[in-house]
Design a protein that fits this description.
Order of helices and strands: HHHHEEEEEE
Largest sheet: 6 strands, antiparallel
Distance between the termini: 115 Å
Low-confidence stretches: none
Number of helices: 4
Number of domains: 2
Helix content: 25-40%
Length: 154
């Protein structure tokens, strides 16, 4: 009788680790669920932060803060946004409103840019724009009251 191409009594299949340890199915399932939830929250946070940073009101507030001589003297240069931005931003076409708190940092210290603005006809108009430095008793720097220097003709 010829030999068959396969064994007559095959060895039993090896069980994988999860089949050998069924009590780990629930904890591993919970860990996977928490991991996926964490990834979802991280992606959502990244999308929201990116939308805030790409808004015109954010860019204008940061530009005015970085251009202010008082802010540069207090914080040093360069001035960068550091930390978690908070607030609200509502845009509907050419109208909208914003209420933002933007943490900034320079070599000499930290501060928060507080910006409240309304958008009408596609233009943002600030009703409140201040930089409050941490640990400074001098109060906040009002960026709306600072007038640019008068241009002179020589």
């Amino acid at each position: 009788m010829p030999n068959p191409p396969y064994p007559l009594h095959p060895e039993p299949m090896q069980k994988n680790w999860l089949e050998r340890n069924p009590r780990w199915k629930i904890p591993l399932g919970c860990l996977i669920l928490f991991f996926l939830l964490g990834v979802f929250v991280a992606v959502l946070f990244t999308v929201i932060t990116a939308s805030f940073r790409s808004s015109d009101v954010y860019k204008q507030a940061m530009a005015k803060a970085a251009a202010s001589p008082q802010v540069r003297q207090t914080l040093g240069e360069p001035i960068r946004q550091k930390g978690f931005m908070t607030g609200e931003l509502h845009i509907n076409g050419s109208t909208g409103d914003a209420d933002l708190s933007i943490p900034i940092r320079g070599p000499r210290g930290k501060a928060t840019v507080r910006a409240v603005a309304k958008k009408s006809d596609g233009v943002w108009r600030f009703s409140w724009l201040q930089v409050c430095a941490e640990g400074q008793d001098s109060g906040c720097i009002d960026l709306l009251s600072i007038q640019p220097p008068v241009e002179r003709e020589f």
